[in-house]
UniProtKB/TrEMBL annotation:
Organism lineage: Bacteria, Pseudomonadati, Chlorobiota, Chlorobiia, Chlorobiales
Protein name stated in the entry: 2-isopropylmalate synthase
SMART domains: LeuA_dimer
Species in which this protein is naturally found: Chlorobium phaeobacteroides (strain DSM 266 / SMG 266 / 2430)
Region feature Regulatory domain, mapped onto this chain: 399-523
Span of domain Pyruvate carboxyltransferase: 5-275
This protein's UniProt keywords: Acyltransferase, Amino-acid biosynthesis, Branched-chain amino acid biosynthesis, Cytoplasm, Leucine biosynthesis, Manganese, Metal-binding, Transferase
Length: 523
């Protein structure tokens, strides 16, 4: 039998304290519904004393949620009363009260002489405030959580004293926050182990942890605490929260699930709901998820380099420690880019319906590398355009070997082209009304022909700033029309290729003495 770890989600309270994130009541209610679907045990819905909106959100969430709904309150009667008022209709209410216990907080935040003059007196006042708050909260509700704010930097003897006292006063959950994300995993784990030995009545309460990520250690600290006896973990979706955020729910849950060989814990989280929840929180809060964020980032299940793609295609376990489906991501993505190899390309082309022989793959791969060098990512649409172009290439071709354009607002557009045809090279330069005109003139001069262009257009065929441009050039040669198409991320290059393709078609046509009126490459 595995031991249950309670997942306390604070996305709607600490998460909402993230700079820039603020949610309206309806958004909070929607997120709470999704959190329930995700299977969290406790939803911390807000801090009711802080505003009417917070109050209303806690009230609404409490009334409809089947999970325990917690409301935060300072260790003062006024806040606790507000928290309880907001939870009155709740099916499973929890009052969560807190006060700082570290010397730096006690002296820094409670400096006024009304808390005492010496540190000893102030500590005693804080302990009394904590006990009074829990006693008062307990007179209102049955489920009380107490948090010793900045426990990570609190003297262990004083921390044990205060924890013992609040349990005695009726706290059923005692939370040990690393409020400033200062501790190390081994140090934080020891703090929890210490409490288990120092606090006489610790078995009467559940030990909870609440870790912040200032040093990027929030998840590691939480896991270390679980190993040492904590049984509730406080976390947020996407790790949002004050400053660098809280421990991320998805990382803790998946670390426990993927490495279940290392411990005897389980959570009630339906991990397949993680991705949906993450996207909802990101969209409602406006806090974007960094692409390399573990579990839910766009790149978490994307593979770009050839060696990795090859490994993944042979056996996905070579580079994935969990399936994307296990967290609700539809599928692994093989991102085609400049690091991709032939295996990755062939597999994607196959999924698009193109079955290539080895030789064809060699040719298409060379074109792919050429495009991938210019674009960050090669999309399916880019491949379709590339394949369409490749499959319609005429037999006899003028190849664009080199193109240089000099153009700007204060200079005459000049183009230099080098063209190869049947192992011969033709090179020329020309000026023109614009860079495309200059380029066409240079081609004509290099091949010793008159202008034959009867129509020209250019458009973008794929999305984004690095989209592939497609140029269409129609020429009329001896009363026959030929349509050429060129693609490139550079529209001048696409135009030159289109013109050369039309010229190639014309040459092929007259060499084989056809009679058709319009020859094109399938566009
Ligand atoms: C680590 C955490 O995440 S703590 C939770 C943080 N969340 C919030 O602060 C929620 C949003 N906050 C608010 O809406 C407001 O700050 C309120 C309503 C809570 C209080 O507002 P104000 O009365 O204007 O006080 P203000 O925020 O300026 O200062 C906090 C006061 O609470 C005191 N205080 C701070 N924490 C506690 C506590 N846990 N218990 C008792 N008193 C506390 C401070 O010492 C200060 O009191 P002082 O005026 O005697 O110096
Ligand atoms: C209120 C407490 C639990 C908190 O958010 C913290 O200490 O970080
Ligand atoms: Mg916090």
């Amino acid at each position: 039998m595995r031991e249950k770890i309670l997942v306390f989600d604070t996305t709607l309270r600490d998460g909402e304290q993230s700079p820039g994130a603020s949610l309206n009541v309806q958004e909070k209610v929607e997120i709470a519904r999704q959190l329930e679907k995700l299977g969290v045990d406790i939803i911390e819905a807000g801090f009711p004393a802080s505003s009417p909106l917070q109050f209303e959100a806690v009230q609404k969430i409490g009334a409809e949620s089947g999970a325990v709904v917690a409301a935060l309150a300072r260790a003062v009667e006024q806040d606790i009363t507000r928290a309880w008022q907001s939870l009155r209709e709740a099916r499973k209410p929890r009052i969560h009260t807190f006060i700082s216990t570290s010397d730096i907080h006690i002296t820094g935040k409670f400096g006024s002489s009304r808390y005492g003059t010496s540190l000893k007196e102030k500590r005693a006042t804080i302990l009394n405030m904590a006990v009074n708050a829990v006693t008062f909260a307990r007179s209102l509700a049955g489920d009380i959580e107490f948090s010793a704010e900045d426990a990570g930097r609190t003297d262990p003897v004083y921390l044990a004293e205060i924890i013992e006292a609040v349990i005695e006063a009726g706290a059923s959950t005692v939370n040990i926050p690393d409020t400033t994300g200062y501790t190390w995993p081994s140090e934080f784990g020891k703090k929890i182990r210490d409490l288990k030995t120092r606090v006489g009545n610790i078995e009467k309460a559940i030990i909870s942890v609440h870790c912040h990520n200032d040093l990027g250690l929030a998840v590691a600290n939480s896991l270390s605490a679980l190993e040492q006896g904590a049984r509730q973990v406080e976390c947020s979706i996407n790790g949002i929260g004050e400053r660098a955020g809280n421990a991320s729910l998805e990382e803790i849950v998946m670390a426990l699930k993927v490495r279940s060989d290392l411990h005897n814990f389980e959570t009630g989280i339906i991990t397949e709901e993680i991705y949906n929840t993450s996207r909802m929180v990101s969209s409602f809060t406006g806090i974007i998820i960094q692409p390399n964020k573990a579990i839910v980032g766009d790149n978490a299940f994307s593979h770009e380099s050839g060696i990795h793609q090859d490994g993944m295609l042979k056996n996905r376990e070579t580079y994935e420690v969990m399936t994307p489906q296990s967290v609700g991501v539809p599928e692994t993505s093989i991102v085609l880019g400049r690091h991709s190899g032939k295996h990755g390309l062939a597999s994607r082309l196959l999924s698009l319906g193109y079955i290539l022989q080895d030789k064809e793959l060699e040719t298409i791969y060379r074109r792919f590398v050429d495009i991938a060098d210019k674009k960050k990512e090669v999309y399916d649409d880019d491949l379709r355009v590339m394949m369409g172009d490749e499959l319609s290439r005429p037999a006899s071709v003028y190849e664009l070997d080199y193109l240089h354009i000099n153009s700007g607002t204060a200079s005459i557009p000049t183009a230099t082209v080098r063209i190869t045809h049947n192992q011969r090279t033709f090179e020329e330069s020309a000026t023109g009304d614009g860079p495309v005109d200059a380029c066409f003139r240079a081609i004509e001069r290099a091949l010793g022909i008159e202008s034959m262009v009867s129509s020209y257009s250019v458009r973008s065929t794929t999305a984004g700033r690095q989209a592939l441009g497609e140029a269409l050039v129609r020429i009329r040669d001896r009363n026959v029309s030929f349509n050429g198409r060129g693609i490139s991320t550079d529209i001048i290059e696409a135009s030159a290729k289109a013109y050369l393709q039309a010229l190639s078609l014309s040459r092929t046509y007259f060499e084989t003495d056809n009679t058709t009126e319009t020859i094109d490459n399938g566009v």
